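Render this sequence as a predicted structure.
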Amino acid sequence: MSVTRDTIADVEPLDNPIWHALTGPQAEFAQGSGLALRYEPDVGVFAAIPDAPSPDAWDALRTLIGPGRTAVMARSHVDPPPEWEHVGGGVGHQYLAPAELGDASPTITLTPLGIDDAVEMLALVERTQPGPFFKRTVGLGGYLGIRDDESDGALIAMAGERMRPRGYAEISAVCTDAAHRGRGLATTLVHAVARGIRARGDTPMLHVASDNTNAIALYERLGFTRRASLQVAVLRAPR
């Protein structure tokens, strides 16, 4: 049986965050059916199936992405049928924000970012490689940037939101241009985005690759606590 918005009250959405985002607060960005969903391709890279997937769900995912194409999934456990090929992935740690968040530096000006800033955001992502980011990812909301007053207002750092399973929101795309690191820009952005999430009643969380030791050290220094580890799998659908 597929899991719908009416039947998720007794499950933990963070164990399958993409599914619970696309069947809930971010349904407007979803493509697919009641058995398999993905973000619109110019918004996000991830796909998902229900918490307890049936063979029909895997068939629906194959139809959604296309035979021989790949799906990127992130959940507590990924166990595809044998005809699906595992072609990549890893482990991501899931962190929850502390109850008390730091204040923004009074010397740093934060600027809301929107679709008109997408070209600059994509350029910053290209330089810093924080993870998948597309021309409409900014539409997921909550994006803040920091501009360099000494270089015609160039975008030098940013952060925003990605997955929004019910009751939570993921801080994502945290990145700072290499020439401006060490100034606390990422810390200011993470706290500011987290406060925006809390202001609407959700809990801030984030994901970080298990081998990204620098990012893990930063988030733990800011008081984030590890909740769980998720399997990130890149799967090729049978032809």
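Summary. Residues 111 and 145 are 5 Å apart (CA to CA). The helical segments are 17-22, 55-65, 118-128, 185-199, 213-221.
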